[in-house]
Write a structure and sequence with these properties.
With about 325 residues, the chain is mainly alpha-helical. It has one domain: Rhopdopsin 7-helix transmembrane proteins (Up-down Bundle), CATH 1.20.1070. It has 11 helices and 5 strands. Strands 4-3-5 form a 3-stranded mixed beta sheet. Helix 7 packs antiparallel against helix 8 and helix 8 packs across helix 9. It is globular, with a radius of gyration of 22 Å. The N terminus is likely disordered. Belongs to the G-protein coupled receptor 1 family. InterPro entries: GPCR_Rhodpsn, GPCR_Rhodpsn_7TM, Olfact_rcpt, Olfactory_GPCR.
């Protein structure tokens, strides 16, 4: 199934085998159950925000981020859960290509949207009088559209280059999903220069986003320190710090995973790093951005009360 030499011709890779968490079926099943719980928590939190925002027009929550996180975690985790439960680590060539496209697409979009959200916080805290003029509906739509477009372009670039190159040797991907660094280790070192160019280009974009986020928070924290009230400073800090922590984990863990050398026998670090940029952000983002919000809690309470007090429909 892996690329190789047969009758003087290079065999075509038709499927890959993803990393198994353990050789023990019991440990594999426990791992799948744990991942399933985490996945259900992340999906439930993001779907709850989407539903509440759709039902209550007064809510102003990052529904784009919730929809993005719902899709983002669904690209990698369900396949890993199914593989662990069925003890079958295979993924087709086309399935791997699609997973890479959607993962890179959504990850790049997430970075761009988090950058936009940091700018939104900067304007809200540092220039509150001009917030409505700067962050009007048109500006928000343009920034979100550009974020999604940049993600799609990134995904297409990676897939077009990586999967047009010949895979050689083993077809075992040393990761629980198809990720670019691990796939590069399966390519002939003589032909991966084009993919490295794409990675350098995307990395430069990530660095730009990181610099913009850092600058936004430098100005934000400077403005917070000028707030005379200790209670006011604490309240503003409490809304910014969780966002900064998740963004930092997301960017740093992803950057380390993409620049460190790939080992044929993954270490604990190799297994943990992807969790911080595939599972943690979509699980924590609903809590950080919306479910801690007072208006969101009030809307949830209103709809719960409405559902419990609403009588049965006539004729039942």
């Amino acid at each position: 199934l892996s690329s190789g030499v047969s009758d003087g011709k290079e065999a075509e890779t038709v499927e890959f085998h993803l990393l198994e968490f353990s050789a023990s079926q019991e440990v594999q099943t426990a791992h799948a159950a744990l991942m399933l719980v985490v996945y259900l928590v992340a999906v439930s939190g993001n779907l709850l925000i989407i539903v509440l925002t759709s039902l209550d027009a007064h809510l102003q929550t990052p529904i784009n981020l919730s929809f993005l996180d719902f899709c983002y975690i669904s690209v990698t985790v369900p396949k890993s859960i199914i593989n662990s439960f069925t003890h079958d680590s295979s993924i087709s060539f086309s399935g791997c290509a699609l997973q890479v496209f959607f993962f890179i697409d959504l990850a790049s979009t997430e970075i761009a949207i988090l950058t936009v959200m940091s700018y939104d916080r900067y304007v809200a805290i540092c220039q509150p009088l001009y917030y409505e003029a700067i962050m009007d509906r048109g500006a928000c739509v343009r920034m979100i559209a550009l974020s999604w477009l940049s993600g799609m372009v990134s995904g297409l670039m990676h897939v077009a280059v990586t999967f047009s190159l010949p895979f050689c040797g083993s077809n075992r991907v040393p990761q629980f999903f198809c990720d670019i660094p691990q796939l590069l280790s399966l390519l002939d070192s003589k032909v991966i220069i084009s993919e490295f160019r794409v990675m350098v280009f995307i990395t430069c974009l990530v660095v730009v986003c990181f610099i913009l986020i850092t600058l936004s928070y430098v100005y934000i924290f400077s403005a917070i320190m000028r707030i005379p009230s200790k209670e006011g400073r604490f309240k503003t800090f409490s809304t910014c710090v969780p966002h900064l922590v998740v963004v930092t984990l997301f960017l740093i863990s992803g950057s380390i995973a993409y620049v460190k050398p790939i080992s044929s026998s993954p270490s604990i670090l190799d297994l943990l790093l992807p969790v911080f940029y595939t599972v943690v952000p979509p699980t924590l983002n609903p809590i950080i951005y919306s479910l801690r919000n007072r208006d969101m809690k009030a809307a949830l309470g209103r709809h719960c009360v409405r559902m419990t007090t609403q009588g049965p429909s006539p004729g039942t």
